[in-house]
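User: My instructor asked us to take a sequence, write out its structure as tokens, and then describe one feature of it. I'm not sure where to start. Here is the sequence I was given:
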Amino acid sequence: MSLFEGGALGLAAFVLIAGTALTGAMARGDQMAAAVAAALVAFLFSGVFDYLLEVPRLAALFYLIVFCGLTMMQTPMYGPAASAISRDRSASRSDRPAKPD
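Assistant: Let's start with the prediction itself. The structure tokens for your sequence are:
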């Protein structure tokens, strides 16, 4: 199914999800965000000359990278909240011996 078959709503949804993922990746300033943004831009530029989403492997890779870009829109956890979560997770590990009551 091409973008033409998806109609105006399909094209709008594609542009919205790709644009949101790209701006979410570009908003962060780390190396992973740069890699995700570069992958999305490369895919979109090569999509100008060929329809890459009709190949299932490339479509899955594209949507995986879009998902990574969308998850980068969340604010990274720094400070006491992140350390509290890591303490809570490390306290529930099963490889530690249980303390006797």
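For the description part of your assignment, you could build on this observation: The chain has one domain: 3-90. Try explaining in your own words what that tells you about the chain.
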